[in-house]
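Reopening this one. Same input as before:
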Amino acid sequence: LGRQGLVMKRVSRLIEADSRPIVHWGTNDRLCRFKPLGRRATKQLAVLKYGGIAAFDSDTLFELDSAELFALADKHVDRLLLPQALLDNLYRYSRCQELQRADWERHVKTAYWIDHITDDLERVFCKVARRNYTCANLIEAETDALDQIDISKGTILMSFHGAFLTMTRAFYAATFEKGLVVQKNSSVIPGRIGVQDNHRAALFAVFRALQDRKVLLIAPDAGHGETSSTLNVLGVSVQVGVGAAFLAYEAKCNTAWYTVARQGDRFVPIIVPGPSRTAGETYDEFQTRLLSFVAERIESILTGDPRNIALRFMWSAALGGSPTGPAHRGEVGAPARGDRQSRSLPWLRKMHGYVRQALTSWTSPAAKRTQWGEDEHDGHAFDACDRRASTAKQVGPETGKTSASQ
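Same output, byte for byte:
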């Protein structure tokens, strides 16, 4: 709107005031959101957001342990404002209503504020201060949790845009040095695979990595790439990408739910084994089972310990508004467009062609003969897509919808 200069002058006056007022911040007001305004503006907004907090003023935020972080967040949680409609909706479904409502709300706000602090530290402060910092140091690794990952096969770890997402990603990067991450935009960081610019190449790269027994982190609720399935969580619908289900089915790899949770005065990784393809199971049957598992895990967090409810904007906005309101493709609340199968079958056929094209473009003739002639697993994985598409077409479209109750 051309008002940045005027706004930043007012911000400067607030910072320089003898009695600096407490500024309230919304659910989506993480500092990384303001980075397009420039380095100076971001630093000023950081002072406005954290000024008056001893650890910020003394430049010791990077040295906080988990217990100190909890105490700091609880002390200054009133700087964060959450929509009352969001709190009302979450509390309506809560399994922790034995808590006083005021205590429950404070726990949720503290979780959101912790998520803000760790995200600002990881994505803004450490870069401004040129510090080698990761909030993975706040997490206590439990061998039992990590032992649930079968390293003899490729594994897809699924998360969502909530439950301390920044720490979830940071711990994953620290634990799985060669692990891959599917994200929207391309990145120069090794292992980050962007799907927006070339999702054909991304699909091929991830499929081959899973065959090579790599670990992959993906958030199905991001809605990147093709979206042809609906996830229902607490009465709210979100169109999700089919990449996780498709890759897990074709690569015959493991799946697991992965987040970071607060337990007492510490953070721990949570890993729950997910569905794997069974003999004779069709793609649609597996996709339904996988999405039901994802929905159940998300609902378990949203209805459970309020100290772990820290949602990103897409879920905060949807759960704080009308569950049936309109939304854009790939966002929470987005209306379904036709039945699931009528959308998924063309997508499967396209993916078959994409991978064939990628292999033709990127491999030598000898390698192609090996992959599509001698290697039975590689050669027939995507042929099966056409057979399933043809068979499903004869049977007719499904009428069921995926939900946490299935």
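So the earlier flakiness isn't reproducible anymore. For the record, The first strand starts at residue 155 and ends at 158.
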